[in-house]
Design a protein that fits this description.
Blueprint (H helix, E strand, L loop, with lengths): L1 H23 L2 E4 L1 H7 L1 H38 L5 H26 L4 H28 L3 E4 L15 H13 L1
Parallel strand pairs: 1-2
Helix pairs in contact: 2-6, 3-4, 3-5, 5-6
Length: 176
């Protein structure tokens, strides 16, 4: 009989232990979208990126306009040109098409200049945000901080929202 009671007590302790442990965890969340909107350095980086995008877009537009102009000119003169001149103009068009496509890929493609520039601009900012999140988490004794913008959070009490604290920490760290 005493073995049975001991097993029941141990089973009860085993069942209630995870609930007790979970009650001791301190979990907070942030909204990284809001941090990105409110952190001045992010806005500055976005402005620089937009300026570079406009510059590259103007260059690309110039390529497209030259290509369009060359095609129109070729179509107008086609009947007057010799076969050799037609082949020469077609080759010129193909070269310009290839050059335009290469420019677009090298500047706007997934591994292009614009992507690398964005990564260069954002790397130190993301390090600062990461440092601020870690600082707030350590100072306030959080076990976990979850990013609500990542879609992994379904419900949270507003009292655990650390977004304002992280923005404050970023501002404080930037002023020092």
């Amino acid at each position: 009989m005493s073995i049975r009671i001991t097993k029941i007590i141990l089973l009860g302790v085993a069942i209630s232990l995870p609930g007790y442990l979970l009650g001791q965890l301190k979990i907070g969340y942030i909204d990284s979208n809001r941090i990105m909107q409110e952190f001045e350095e992010v806005r500055d980086a976005q402005a620089k990126l937009e300026k570079e995008t406009r510059r590259l877009q103007a260059q690309y537009t110039s390529y497209v306009e030259r290509l369009d102009s060359l095609q129109r000119e070729f179509e107008r003169q086609r009947l007057l040109l010799s076969n050799d001149k037609i082949r020469e103009k077609e080759q010129e068009l193909q070269t310009l098409v290839r050059t335009t496509q290469e420019f677009q890929q090298s500047k706007f493609g997934p591994e292009g200049d614009l992507y690398r520039y964005q990564a260069t601009l954002m790397a130190p900012i993301l390090e600062k945000i990461d440092g601020a999140v870690k600082s707030v988490g350590a100072e306030r004794g959080y076990d976990f901080i979850i990013d609500a913008a990542g879609g992994a959070l379904v419900y949270a009490l507003p009292a655990y929202d650390l977004t304002a604290d992280v923005v404050t920490e970023l501002r404080r760290a930037t002023q020092n």
